Amino acid sequence: MDSDAQKTLAEVAEIVAQRGHIVAFSGAGVSKESGIPTFREPGGLWDRFEPGASSGIMGVISAFPERAPEILEELLATFRKAKPNPGHLALAELERMGLLHSVVTQNIDNLHREAGNTIVYELHGSMYRLRCLGCGRKVLREREVFLEEFSRLIAAMKKQGIQNIFSLMARCECGGLFRPDFVAFGEAVQDLHESVDAVRKCRVMLVLGTSGVVYPAASLPGYARDAGAVIIEINPNRSALTRLAHHFLQGPTGVVLPRLTEEIRQRLQ
Ligand code: APR
């Protein structure tokens, strides 16, 4: 890290150590070093399946039904390999240090919880939770159980085709169909009230690994800034939210967050 970047990191660490009460706002970039591709970068899902991209994964599958098993198989392989990376672990450490209040994430991979953060608002839902289309009941799936069920669904889809997908899905006690509880484009986001409340009370917001182009999630840094928080963005590239950042630390979150956390720890000793 060059000397300017080191100086900025030290300045930011000083601010965070003094202010505390952090809320982290994360996007797909935070999970990239866990092997989960981002959406909008070259080679990402929307880059490769543009016609369906505007309506998310379900849109891609509707646009390319014959390729649904291949797309879902790729998604399954990615989730099977994914583990919290040093960026996720640094956020859990900041919570243990009593500095980080909560994580507001756009990601559906459950990696913030697996890393150890206990207050995680999942605006776009979670792949590891099922929602009953009949009674609305939600059930959390253990990671391995989820991966096994997902794998069986794909195998059955290969045999019987996507048109029978609904008959292949798990059922709720009420008889309704379970679907993964992620938020498809056009559906209402989850935990928005709690997220807005949290960002309005924070004194530091870490904006991590997001292009900042999807609303209402991308409106949250503006709420935090209007409420007086210091906005610190960490990203290898500038984003649509960089204009709101008081400080921009350029680099991957898996590298910068652990360094920042160490700098903060030294100031608290
Ligand atoms: N560390 C941090 N950030 C990174 C890294 C990294 N190692 N690698 C890439 N990035 C940044 C990119 O520069 C980009 O700004 O991660 C961001 C990823 O942007 P997107 O792919 O647009 O992901 P995200 O912002 O989370 O998308 C928001 O869009 O498709 C929907 O529902 C989906 O939740 C998603 C939402």
UniProtKB/TrEMBL annotation:
Binding-site positions, Zn(2+): C132, C135, C172, C174
EC number(s) from the headed UniProt entry: 2.3.1.286
Active site: H124
Catalytic EC class: transferase
Any one Pfam family match given in the protein's UniProt record, by short name: SIR2
UniProt-listed Gene3D superfamilies: SIR2/SIRT2 'Small Domain, TPP-binding domain
Entry's Gene Ontology molecular function annotations: histone deacetylase activity, NAD-dependent; metal ion binding; NAD+ binding
InterPro entries linked to this entry: DHS-like_NAD/FAD-binding_dom, NAD-dep_sirtuin_deacylases, Sirtuin, Sirtuin_cat_small_dom_sf, Ssirtuin_cat_dom
Superkingdom as given in the UniProt entry: Bacteria
Keywords linked to the UniProt accession: Metal-binding, NAD, Transferase, Zinc
Record-annotated Deacetylase sirtuin-type domain positions: 2-267
PANTHER family to which the protein is assigned, alphabetical: NAD-DEPENDENT PROTEIN DEACYLASE SIRTUIN-5, MITOCHONDRIAL-RELATED
Protein name: protein acetyllysine N-acetyltransferase
